[in-house]
Design brief:
- This protein is mainly alpha-helical.
- Helices cover 66% and strands 0% of the residues.
- It contains one helix and no strands.
- The protein has one helix at 2-52.
- The protein is elongated.
- The relative contact order is 0.05.
């Protein structure tokens, strides 16, 4: 009987490992699906907010300081 158990234990452990691996893959798939659903909901909420409630702040144009070169002479250098 002890010989039978010593031969059976590796197969039982291998079966448990395979079941644990399959369970982990299924759990990971559900986590990815849940993350995609939450991300899609947040995307739709942000899209609706931007579509109907535009920001009312006026964007000021930034005045450039410094030298502006309007020629292609610098490319010859």
């Amino acid at each position: 009987m002890p010989r039978f158990l010593s031969q059976l234990i590796p197969f039982v452990l291998m079966g448990v490992a395979i079941v644990a691996f399959a369970f982990g893959i299924v759990l990971l798939a559900y986590l990815f699906l849940l993350g995609a659903i939450i991300g899609f909901i947040l995307f739709i909420m942000t899209w609706i907010k931007n579509k109907f409630f535009r920001p009312t702040t006026i964007v000021k144009t930034k005045k450039t300081t410094g030298r502006i070169i309007d020629s292609d002479d610098w490319k010859k250098l």
